[in-house]
C-alpha cells in the first residue's frame, strides 16, 4: 500500500553529464560537475561543455569582494 502512494515520476529531462561554467565568472571560476542553476538558460559550447547564464543573479557580498580583488589583480 505504501509503495502505491509513492510517486517517482520524472519532472523534466535528466541532467546532461559534462562541465558547467558560469557566464558571469567564466574567466576565474572553476567549472561545476553539474548545473547549479537548472532554472537558468544553458548553452552547449562544445560537446559536454556547457555555459549557464547566471548574469542576472546578483552577487553575494563575498562574490562582490572576490570580483573586486580579481579586477584589481588584472
Give a brief rundown of this model.
The protein contains two helices and three strands. It is of the alpha+beta class and 74 residues long. Strand 2 and strand 3 form a beta hairpin.
Describe this structure in words.
With 74 residues, this protein is of the alpha+beta class. The protein is built from two helices and three strands, in the order H-E-E-E-H. 23% of the residues lie in helices and 18% in strands. It is elongated. It has a three-stranded mixed beta sheet, with no helix packed on it. It has helices at residues 2-5, 61-73; strands spanning 19-22, 42-46, 49-52.
Helical stretch count? Answer: 2
Anisotropy-based shape: elongated
Q: Tell me the fraction of residues in β-strands, as a range.
A: 15-25%
Overall mean pLDDT: 83
What does the radius of gyration come to? 17 Å
Main pleated sheet: 3 strands, mixed
The number of distinct β-strands equals: 3
Name the poorly predicted regions.
Answer: 1-10
Overall tally of structural domains: 1
* Secondary-structure element series: HEEEH
- For the largest sheet, list the strands in their spatial order: 1-3-2
The amount of helix comes to 10-25%
Global structural class: alpha+beta
Q: What gap, in angstroms, lies between the N and C termini?
A: 63 Å
Amino acid at each position: 500500500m505504501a509503495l502505491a502512494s509513492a510517486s517517482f515520476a520524472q519532472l523534466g529531462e535528466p541532467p546532461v553529464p559534462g562541465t558547467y561554467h558560469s557566464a558571469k565568472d567564466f574567466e576565474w571560476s572553476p567549472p561545476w560537475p553539474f548545473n547549479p542553476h537548472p532554472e537558468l538558460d544553458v548553452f552547449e559550447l562544445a560537446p559536454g561543455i556547457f555555459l549557464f547564464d547566471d548574469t542576472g543573479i546578483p552577487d553575494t557580498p563575498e562574490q562582490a569582494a572576490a570580483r573586486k580583488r580579481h579586477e584589481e589583480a588584472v
